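Second opinion, please. Please look over this fold, written as tokens:

===
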Amino acid sequence: QELWVETEFDSDGDGRKDRMHVDVTRQRQTETEGLKVAVIYESSPYFAGTANDRKSLWNVNQEIGATPPPRTSQPPARFQPVRARISNSEVTTWVPRGFAVVHSEAPGTGLSQGCIAIGGPTEEQAPKAVIDWLNGRAKGYTSLTGDTEVIATGWATGKVGMTGTSYNGTIPIAAALTGVKGLEAIIPIAPNTSYYHYYRSNGLVRHPDGWLGEDIDYLYDFVASGDPAKRDYCNKTVRDGLFARGRDREHGDYNDFWAARDQMNRINNVHAATLMAHAFNDFNVVPEHSVRIYEALKKRGVPVQAYYHQGGHGGAPPLEMRNKWFSRYLYDVQNGVEKDPRAFIVREGAERNAPPTPYADYPNPAAKPVPVFLLSGGNSAGKLSMDHKSGQGSEALIDDVSQAGRALAQMPRSENRLLYSSPILKTPVHMSGYSTITIRLASSKPAANLSVWLVALPFDSAGPMAVFNVITRGWADPQNWRALTKGGNYTSMVPGEPLVPGRFYDLTFSLEPDDQIIPAGKRIGLMIMSSDRDFTLWPRPGTALTVELDRTSMELPVVGGKVALEKAFGN
């Protein structure tokens, strides 16, 4: 069944409310026997195709804080004026299990009207309109411009669950932010919950893994598959207007533009039971996107569970978990899912879809922050110690973006990084949660990248454990030192300021959250470098960062706390 649902907004400036393209797949008995069913709903800007031209990414060869060289937009995706079937996604999974399946195309894509929003308010209001239609509160029509209505209340119970992966996982949370009645449960998989956290880190311009040079305007062009007649208006108003004014690619600071695209700022409206899914080695949509929302919903008392695996981007929870979640909250099946453990984690070395290990919560409730300190020798291999020893002095590194982080971690000596490692672990170390660094540093230039990795040494060259060489990583802009006084979620409106070359500054920030068991026989390494060639801008080599070791430390979230780490270190 194909239809267009009318929204409450006019984003393309034509004086008429935008309509969203929708399809429905439901059991024949909903027509012949009066059967009423709940709905699984997926919305996406990708269903009509994308414009993948990597030549149009931003040129990352630029100095930090400089005006970026201009970017040329890629040709848009091909417009398909007839598309009765939006997607088959989710149909074979849920229709046989007693749910109808609904798909819709996001504003400005496919046959949906409006302008592309990329995290803007219409991206929340569009799925809300579809849910309202399923509950008889909005109107649906058989055509884009006609007035023949389509009614859903004869077959829909009004209870809706949303799911999807990546951008498609972002939209369920976006819909839930409206507090719309009828959206009872969501399963977001690897969702992008803040476009700032996707394209920036702690004041620094930082790109998603595999998409060096991507920014919010490139993503706009990437999904531009809507009506060509509307593109000039939308490009001028959104991409070349709102986005150009707000993205601040020169400084990388958080501002009102990014705050409007940060789901955390409206999280108090969410009441839908949430099963969150993410991967700890996802450095496209980094895991903090899910962890911060999961923690916020816990505090609000919203029913919530977390499923994490050790792979890369994507990866849904097992079907049994998803079916229990939707059955409980859309059909009120008393299956006890709300009494299950809060967190399920696929352990190291297992396949992504292997049965997960249950835990009482995430982070692991037994994890406690344990401070470790730096002992001199970082250009070769300094030591990571549980004992603070003063008089370690300062050590410097020279930025050279041509040196990849993985190579630097394996070099016996390098002037391009500082590396400090623990003793060989005598027992495994289970880390769960955020690792947080406090660092005192000086730069030889007014602006510099700062990248920090936790690594497991020596690196495994191949095999299923190779992905765990990099335990976690994080990035920050030293120019934002005034705001970087604590770890956790970064939303400071305090702008950065040029550094005084040679002056020391104190910064504290968190690396990406993780849950990993580092096996006995390994060493835990802390690596500090400037540019990260897979994620940051690429300035000319030569910037010197000097780290004062006595005022630099790391807190590791160790299950079992200090006692467990002492045992592993052999103290």
Summary: The two ends are 67 Å apart (CA to CA).
